[in-house]
Amino acid sequence: MFASNLFGSEDERQGFLDDVESLLRRGQPDVAAGLLEGQLGDLADDGDELARLCIKVPVSAVRITGWEQLAGKLEKLDRPGRPITAIGIDISAPFEMPELDDRHGNFYEPDLDTVYYTDSAFPFASASREMMMEEAQNAKAAWVGHFENVDATIGVRGLGGIYGEVLIAQKKCKDYDHKNAMEQDSAVIASAFIAVRLHQAIKATAEGRGMPRAACLMVGNNESFPYYDAPVMTRPEYEEYLDAEGEEDDCGQYDHAFGTLRLAPLPDDYDPFAAMPDEDQVSGAALRKKLRAQAEAETPEVANDVAPAGIGGFLNRILKRSA
């Protein structure tokens, strides 16, 4: 049952979520985050605990793991005339609700799918952001379902303190007789907040550590509310970023864009909430689950500890050039 203090109808609520996704697709994740943080701040002032937890998680508290494994994955998946030209990183809905206990509370890091695409269904290698936005307006974008492989290479740390609470809130609000307007509002806004925070963290990692090759990078939700799907960087944008950040040397390496990884200090407002649980969690659509189960055992994940600082710098350069 619909109930809200923020929206006059379900259509109005969906319109707000669509506006947030539109900002992501236009390359403005920081603006999208600011929009959500404003709503969460109002909910927190009214006493909502989930909203209070969300606003305590800055981008700098979110770390991406497995990034150093991408180069090897791409080499294994490349085929003659069919190289991997796009990588998607999706929050994948759990097949089952996580079991909560007294020790870990409601702590649960999002399950991520790493999805690999070629140009077989869509020209990622040359597509601009405008081309991707136009294609995304269709009921089903050309690349949906046309991936080469999927695994769990990329992971995330730092969202577990709120994601478990979001899953519980989503389940609670699905009950037909649920009428608590504040709880419905916070469940919706917090779900979008998780998606946007991941988008920001992936963008910061791609800029801070570089990508193993120039490729399109996307972040979205697989069977997971609010079902977002947006490019972080297109391949042309990433090539422009490399040109702006560093000169290519004789060995084909970029001196500034691929600097040494350094441990970043935790921000003063970082709150891990709880100890990290075991990580034997698998989720996603049936086909994705099957492919992930077939993946070879990898070396232990190493967290990306580059401070996601300077968010928006790349976006500002793009906007200035297009002005």
Would you write up a description of this structure?
- With 323 residues, the chain is α+β, with helices and mostly antiparallel strands.
- It has one domain.
- It is built from ten helices and eight strands.
- The protein has helices spanning 10-25, 29-45, 49-54, 70-77, 129-136, 160-173, 181-209, 235-245, 286-294, 313-322, and strands at residues 63-65, 86-92, 112-117, 149-151, 155-157, 216-222, 229-233, 303-304.
- The strands form two sheets. Strands 4-3-2-6-7 form a five-stranded mixed beta sheet, sandwiched between helices. Strands 5-1-8 form a three-stranded antiparallel beta sheet, with helices on one face.
- A hairpin with a 6-residue loop joins strand 6 (216-222) and strand 7.
- Helix 2 (29-45) runs antiparallel to helix 7.
- It is globular, with a radius of gyration of 19 Å.
- The N and C termini lie far apart (45 Å).
- The relative contact order is 0.20.
Blueprint of the fold:
Blueprint: H1 10-25, H2 29-45, H3 49-54, E1 63-65, H4 70-77, E2 86-92, E3 112-117, H5 129-136, E4 149-151, E5 155-157, H6 160-173, H7 181-209, E6 216-222, E7 229-233, H8 235-245, H9 286-294, E8 303-304, H10 313-322
Parallel strand pairs: 2-6
Antiparallel strand pairs: 1-5, 1-8, 2-3, 3-4, 6-7
Shape: globular
Radius of gyration: 19 Å
Low-confidence parts: 247-285, 304-323
Order of strands, widest sheet: 4-3-2-6-7
Mean pLDDT: 81
Reported for the largest beta sheet, the result is: 5 strands, mixed
Regarding quaternary structure, how should these chains be classified?
Answer: single chain
Total domain modules: 1
Please report the total strand number as a whole number: 8
The helix/strand order is HHHEHEEHEEHHEEHHEH
- Give the proportion of residues in helices: 25-40%
Output the structural class.
alpha+beta
- How far apart are the termini? 45 Å
Strand fraction: 5-15%
Helix run count: 10
